[in-house]
glycerophosphodiester phosphodiesterase
Amino acid sequence: MHALSLLVAASVAVAAPARKPQTPAVTNIQVGPRPFWLVDQMEDSPLKTELAACSEKPIRHAPFFSISHRGGPLQFPEHSREGLYAGARMGAGVLECDVAFTSDRQLVCRHSQCDLHTTTNILLIPELAAKCTTPFEPATADSSATAKCCTSDITHDEFLSLCAKMDSSNPDATTAEEYQYGGPEWRTALYDNCATTIDHKTYIEITQSLGLQFTPELKTPEVEMPFQGNYTQEIYAQQLIDEYKAAGIPSSRVWPQSFLEDDILYWVQAEPAFGKQAVYLDPRVDTAAGYEVAVASMTDLYNQGVRIMAPPIFALLNASADGEIVPSSYATAAKNAGLDIITWSLERSGPLEPAAAEGEYYISTIADVITGDGDMYRIVDALARKVGVKAIFSDWPATVTYYANCLGFH
Ligand SMILES: *[C@@H]1O[C@H](CO)[C@@H](O)[C@H](O)[C@H]1NC(C)=O
Ligand SMILES: *[C@@H]1O[C@H](CO)[C@@H](O)[C@H](O)[C@H]1NC(C)=O
């Protein structure tokens, strides 16, 4: 095993990795000990009793309800082949690829166009590090280490020669080696032995071979568009859809996402079969004023053909005076307008700590009723049974898969 990983690491360092053969569908779904530990952490309640009663029930894929967010990035390097398989093994029914483009306009899986310095080993490969938008600068007495490396800085083949690693960096680093890992401590570098970077076409092949569904996200470009003078946002959005058509994937299994309303409306108009499954990742909720605008916009969005809203978890939940987690005004408005709701991302915050909850993006609106990790399934249950979400993105899909199996969400 060790020799094999050394071999993989060595070959990746010199050349693009050879395509491995297709692996058969994952059928032996494993959720591991974490869901059981989370149930154990709960205070006594009817929900705890329901969830505990499922402990010996066989686990299957949750065909839609459990979405793997970037693979399994609580532990695995995100957007790697290994992360995708981890998500599938944990029973996710839908796998995600965040899509960004390279200098030769190929689509690859990366959470943002310019995160290669923290999610790959690019800074350790001098000839590629030299191509970064901002090459590595060591920390000094008064400034943190910096670097900025974008998929659009390098070619598709160069991208595939990189190793994926846990998204992390050390601001105090004085060398590129030191820069590679800087926590948080509840993530891990355990699987950082050169995980395999993948392009969008390979992601389609893997997900198809597993018999699962697709949710590609068109990442907002961090370079000026049109890129290279003529690569427009519409060409980019169309290229994403075209790769499904070329692979013969029916639109019914593809859930394209974007934070840009214009991308959603482009797909609704230019590719209606894909557009009716487009997922609008709603960035407006990040400010109080934007939240109100979003709440007021639901019917208008529906009339323009939008069908699925996907705000972050905090935007869907509220704390009631008697300590319950209840639907927010956003959740109610979306439902009333006939819109479906998907949300993100469970297990992204690390431990649920009451003292820190207010400052924690995903749970800020329910900070008053958070007591610890025993609340993880209270959050999932409020989303599933009170808000009525169709699916939940998670950094560790096992948690949602266990809930979905237990309580019959598909
Ligand atoms: C885009 O511009 C490049 C030069 O930057 C040119 O080689 C290419 O043919 C152009 N493509 C289209 C579709 O116009
Ligand atoms: C949250 O609940 C409080 C108290 O009921 C209410 O005043 C407030 O408008 C709610 N906020 C949202 C965003 O639903």
Notes: Residues 233-246 form the longest helix (14 residues). The chain has a mean pLDDT of 94. The radius of gyration is 21 Å.
